[in-house]
Amino acid sequence: MKRPTRQKTRDDETEHETTAQEGARTCPECDSSSLIRSSDESEVSCEDCGLILEEEAIDRGPEWRAFNHSERNSKSRVGAPTTQTMHDKGLTTTIDWKNKDAYGRSLSSDKRNQMNRLRKWQERIRTKDAGERNLQFALSETDRMASALGVPRSVREVASVLYRRALSEDLIRGRSIEGVATSTLYAACRMEGIPRSLDEVSAVSRVDRMEIGRTYRYISQELSLEMEPVDPKKYVPRFCSELDLSEEVQAKANEIIDTTAEQGMLSGKSPTGYAAAAIYASALLCNEKKTQREVADVAQVTEVTIRNRYQEQIDAMGIYS
User: Fold this and answer.
1) Domain count, the chain
2) Are 240 and 187 contained in the same domain?
3) Among 104, 167, 207, 313, which residue's Cβ finds the most Cβ atoms within 10 Å?
4) Rounded distance, CA 227 to CA 238, Å?
């Protein structure tokens, strides 16, 4: 006798979506949450019982296939995506610098002169007023500093959005463009969980550390940026990598920070100096000794700071040197 198979009816689907709309989606057959999507994204099925929850989904990708990056670029018929890191969001027209036509042939002298005039006027009309010129210069500065700091593109996007907000609310008046651009980049690094110290940011900026800190406090207050204190543990992986220390040292440093922070020792301390002292202490405990000068150079703090924080941390841990 042929065993009937269960089919997912509209009532089952409606009931499932009603019960799962507040929580995670689950399979209506076995209540499993292990749902997988096929490689071509046309079906969603349960990994445990095999029930197909969705099929014949709309394919929103291109109609062509590509197997490498160059093939994908050659077949693509769209331009670059819009971005906040350009003053016109990347929607402007660009005239190529090559004096060649569509067939690769060189242009005549008259055409070259005409193209040069077009490029000149194109550059002039890209910014229609002082606000756009301000934004163009500030975003180019943000991009330069972000490249020097080695932060990902997401940080640049956030910094650009913050600067646009500051410009729209007229917070730039009376302050330098470089100062506001640097402070928004510093705020974006903290918001994205990739902190950079004020000393690191001021090293790639054209303004001094005091102005960056003052402008950052003003911008964060006016834009209502709810900034949490920087966790020293976020500096540990980068410092350990630059010092060529093992994962054991990194884990021990995080343990020292957690233990001492629970005792309230982190309050009022510089997170970079605190992380540097924990790394110095953990390197000694793991027999991978680094000098205080080496750690201080990487963390951009003084040796006195490391000595003071180091002594406090080992006393709190009950370790006697």
Assistant:
1) 2
2) no
3) 313
4) 22
Torsion-angle region of 309 (φ positive above 0: left; ψ -120 to 50: alpha; else: beta): alpha
Q: Cα-flanking dihedrals φ and ψ of residue 42, to 5°? A: -95, -15
Cα angle at 38 between 33 and 39, to 5 degrees?
135
274 and 191 inside one domain: no
Model pTM score: 0.66
* Cα 45 from Cα 198, distance rounded (Å): 50
Q: What is the pLDDT of residues 139-177, one digit of tens each?
A: 999 999 999 999 999 999 999 999 999 999 989 988 999
Q: Nearest 5 degrees, angle CA 86-CA 88-CA 91?
A: 105
Quote the tokens at residue 72: 């994908």
Q: Is 286 annotated as a binding residue?
A: no
The CA–CA distances, whole Å, from 161 to 85, 181, 188, 270 equal: 8, 11, 9, 28
Residue-wise pLDDT for 167-226, tens only, equals 999 899 889 999 999 999 999 999 988 888 888 899 999 999 999 999 999 999 999 888
Please choose, from the candidates 245, 231, 308, 303, the residue with its C-alpha nearest in 3D space to the C-alpha of residue 279: 245
Round to whole Å and give the CA distance between 78 and 64. Answer: 13
Q: What CATH code is carried by the domain that includes residue 140?
A: 1.10.472.10
pLDDT digits (tens, 9 = 90+) for 57-100: 777 777 788 888 888 878 877 777 778 888 778 777 778 788 88
240 is in an annotated binding site: no
